[in-house]
Amino acid sequence: MDFTAADKPQVVLHIHKSLNYTLFDTKWIPASPRCVLLGNHARGTGALQIYNMAQGELQIVKEKEKTDAIKCGTFGHSTLAERSLATGDFKGMLEVWDLENLALPVYSAKAHNSIINCIDGCGGTVGAGAAELVTASRDGCVRVWDPRQKDVPVAALEPGEGESARDCWCVSFGNAHTAEDRCVAAGFDNGDVKLWDLRTNEIRWETCVGNGVCGVEFDRVDIPMNKLVATTLENLIHCYDVRTQHPQEGFASKRVNTAASTIWSARHLPQNRDIFAACCGNGDIMLYKYSYPKERSIKDADGIPKGVAGDLKLLNKKNLSTQPICSFDWHPDKRGLCVMGSFDQSVRVAIVTQLEKY
């Protein structure tokens, strides 16, 4: 389907607010007009702020200054009734916060020996099965945590004996469509992408894309694996069809060179899993749509099914900052509403229009 320029989704800046600290992550609080900002004060302490969006402004509701800088957060493990926030900090601490009382975390664990670069949650607001968290760290480890169990991870992917630890930059849950099925995708600084099946506790698939992997995300967490997007240094987006795995060739993929510097992350629209926003090092937000091929799988010469990659089309882009867009979150309930952070010490709320046409 072809659309005219007027029909294309437009990224409209709604709110721009300057901050007095470095912002690393932004998350909407589910089923609310509030968002959480996480970052690092100049003095090295952690910033946790809650803002309410009202009358075209972000108004601060509550804040917490923590001993160590906060790198990342998620609500994925938490139910709508609880809406607790899990965070990872620069000292490797995993903490869960009751946003109604920020005096002390309700759960904490020394998850890693170095900075927690990324965190994701499952089993609460998204995905079936037990509530779990997964953390990725500079120490090269990926660990899965049950907030009901203190200090000990329920599963761990760690460098083998004699292996050098590679900095793990990003992690994402997927395939959580039953109480038993769940997997984790992880991206590393050397370009490795690993798919870890938690049901069998084995690496199901791995590849190297040649550039450091800044972001990984499944198009939906709570369905059988469908698509996985990995974004990297040097402008690249890799979109994998993870529905059909060939024993030798792995997953079919489409690679796009955006010419837009580092692609920090890709975030799929909750209301349409075939559209995602790519966050760029030049301050752009780029909107892409995935189109499926006529046949998603074909048989090779031996009769073994292998996937067929679809196509990625750039719908539109908008420059919003002079610095990298380092975090981005779509509102789960309001289509097109998004919040993002950038390294110009700013938070922005934007509205993407016309998405219902796709």
- Name of the CATH class: Mainly Beta
Described by the principal axes of the CA atoms, the overall outline is globular
Proportion in β-strands: over 45%
Rg calculated over all Cα atoms: 19 Å
The residue-averaged pLDDT reads: 95
* Cα separation of the termini: 9 Å
Number of DSSP E strands:
30
Q: How many separate domains make up the residues?
A: 1
Question: How would you characterize the overall build of this protein?
Answer:
The protein is mainly β and 358 residues long. It has one domain: YVTN repeat-like/Quinoprotein amine dehydrogenase (Methylamine Dehydrogenase, Chain H, 7 Propeller). It is built from no helices and 30 strands. It has strands spanning 11-18, 22-28, 34-40, 46-54, 57-66, 70-74, 85-89, 93-97, 107-110, 116-122, 132-137, 142-145, 155-157, 168-174, 183-188, 192-197, 202-208, 213-218, 227-232, 236-246, 250-257, 263-269, 272-280, 284-291, 297-299, 305-307, 311-319, 325-330, 337-342, 346-352. It has a four-stranded antiparallel sheet with strand order 1-30-29-28, with no helix packed on it. The chain is globular and about 60 Å long.
Strand and helix map with partners:
Layout: E1 11-18, E2 22-28, E3 34-40, E4 46-54, E5 57-66, E6 70-74, E7 85-89, E8 93-97, E9 107-110, E10 116-122, E11 132-137, E12 142-145, E13 155-157, E14 168-174, E15 183-188, E16 192-197, E17 202-208, E18 213-218, E19 227-232, E20 236-246, E21 250-257, E22 263-269, E23 272-280, E24 284-291, E25 297-299, E26 305-307, E27 311-319, E28 325-330, E29 337-342, E30 346-352
Antiparallel strand pairs: 1-30, 2-3, 3-4, 4-5, 6-7, 7-8, 8-9, 10-11, 11-12, 12-13, 14-15, 15-16, 16-17, 18-19, 19-20, 20-21, 22-23, 23-24, 24-27, 25-26, 28-29, 29-30
